[in-house]
Amino acid sequence: MTASEGSRFWSLLGEQVGHELAAHHQYTAMAVWFDGHDLPQLAAHFYRQALEERNHGMMIVQYHLDRSLPVAIPGIPEVRNEFDRVIEPLQLALDQEEQVTRQIEAIFRAAREEGDALGEQFMLWFLEEQVEEVAAATTLLTVAKRAGDNLFDLENYVARETIGDSGDSADAPKAAGGSL
User: Which of 14, 58, 81, 152 could make an SS bond with 175 (beta carbons 3.0 to 4.6 A apart)?
Assistant: First the structure.
């Protein structure tokens, strides 16, 4: 029996590859929407977010490879491409990050319950990353709500402030194929 057979940890971790790649596509769709609405700062932010999510998925792929376990790249669900107001994609981003946090917590708990110390250690970086992701999405949504219809203020905020860490972390796991 291999380490992955019957393991809830490995099952959830494999599923997370799909969740991260789905987030990559959703953030790309958001970036394109912002670009199409002449909001270049928000577009650039979400293009970066898309790459960050892709890299997260590929970190999990690399971890499977490093542990000599099979990994499958799943298909992804449809993404939302249309929004009526700027607040909608920002709320979707926050909702998505909160969901990913719940998923990462479940994977961590499964590693702990199964006594997989290496898996538990691997997931610690992702837990820390989710704190940053949710905080950044919350702040961006709050600022957008305060800006109201004044999208210039929102764009100026995004241009002026550093939102999140853009995936730059010296202790980040290695991504299969390299980080983009």
Answer: 58
